[in-house]
């Protein structure tokens, strides 16, 4: 995974609040399993690694706790949340609805600049040669679509459930296969959003989540 913090343009890095920088960096470590499920969160060590103080780190941890990515136990400490595979179907059920609405909203509200950015992301599909880089592009695409909804409440909910699903995806990544096909699913979705076709975008988004769900269940059975 890239060492720089994702989620903010380079030119805006100095203006990103320290708590946000800590949140994004720690979130990415958790969802990509660089911090494995159930592992302790060492605040002091992570503060030094990310380059923030204790207060921003604690604010980030509390935020991640509210998003089910961190578990805090009195007198025991802070840990990366465990992954409960039985929750996968429940998460997918929510995502099918949210992703469809998110895609529809993005098709309706995305700015010209956001549509251009989505087009540029779409042009990168097929250029990756390994699952790790494909996963990073998948994440960039999803978060760009969420931001293009123009609805911060919807964007927050979409990111919440995507992050939970993303941890499961990384857990099964060595057994999944077909990552290139999964990533190619985004082409129709992006084209629909860029073209302003809300119905088509919603349908493509729901199908994309269903494919993800099927792939994980197939890996569970293998």
From TrEMBL:
SMART domains: FCD, HTH_GNTR. Residues 16-83 form the HTH gntR-type domain. GO terms for molecular function: DNA binding; DNA-binding transcription factor activity. This is DNA-binding transcriptional regulator, GntR family. InterPro entries: GntR_C, TF_FadR/GntR_C, Tscrpt_reg_HTH_GntR, WH-like_DNA-bd_sf, WH_DNA-bd_sf. Keywords: DNA-binding, Transcription, Transcription regulation.
